[in-house]
Description:
With 392 residues, this protein is mostly helical. The chain is built from 14 helices and no strands. It has helices spanning 4-14, 29-57, 67-89, 95-122, 131-154, 159-177, 181-194, 202-212, 218-225, 232-252, 257-277, 289-314, 317-345, 356-375.
Amino acid sequence: MKSPASIKKAAEWALPYWTRGQAGRETPHDLFRVLYFGWLVAFTLKLLGSAWDVSWHFKWLRDDLAPPHLLNSAGTAIALALTIVHGYTGYGVDRLALRLIQWGTGIFLVAVPLDLINHRINGLDITSWSPSHIMLYVGTFFMIAGVVRGWFMGAPPGRERTFVLAAFLAFFLENVHFPEQHQEYGILSLGAWDNHVTYAEPILLQFAADQMGRPVDRVMMLGFTLPVPDFLYPVYAVVAGVSVLVVARLLIGRFGAATLVAGAYVGFRTLIWPLLTVTGFPPSAVPFFLVVAGLLVDVAFLVRLPVARAVVGAVGVTAVTYGALMAQSTLMGAVYGAVKGQEGLAGAPPLVMASAVWAGVGLMVVWGAAEWVASRRSPRPQVVETPAVVTA
């Protein structure tokens, strides 16, 4: 706990910066770091809360004031405070970054009461894919996207810029992949039921059974644990998850960037798994295949860029397009293979191989759009290295 003297000192440092300004104003480097390290704290709290939340809902009957919700709310409170600071002072963000943060925070705050109303009307609503839950992910999506842009545009080059950018992108990957955890927890809970073990408390199972109008049997457990079509998991993992890794490679611009982001997220999931299970919470399948996807994205960029430069001059753009299609199709197929291998070794949701066609098309479209946007991005402004003189 901070002493009154340290609080006073922090206030004396911060208050001169509390002046009205437009987004994009020059930001002193020390203030810039404080703002974005504040975002790291906010997203860390939200990450811990969300990681606990899914496991909690596979064990206990829902409670608005459950500890995971309170932990997530603490992170949201910090995010809201930072959004207000950015919006009022204009420090640390350009106009687009600010709009993304404001819209994301606004959507998230609107989604919270809508989700509460949804639960009051529909009861349990266990699926992560419900409309009100999707609004929460969409709000967080825009919020983190704005923070990523703000840090990318304003942070000075160096190791700190790279690793903090990777951290924000790992948070981004966690948010995008979050709804998939329903199937990752669900497949192991269903397998436990088949082995005459239940992770959920009887009151939760009975509540779910009453909603479905069934006894507590395997059909009810299947609807409880895997309520969405089986093709959704692999298609979403390839189109959404791998696309985040492509964006990470484009923004960081170094070999290993996609692997680093995927490894950070999967490493967290691997670490949190025993911490949850040792306290009696249900286990989940961990998406190890994302690390394979990250490595393949890095390799695809490593191989494709020099080949593209050589082929454009010799053969033409069409050959490069076919080469890109082949590389991305190979990557998508390898991800499907990794999911299939994990299904037999460490557990994974059911895999519908026929969905690979849709996954490949979706990945191609999003990958191409990401590269097109990256080719048109504006140059980064400079952060003031020394504190600016602030006047009232």
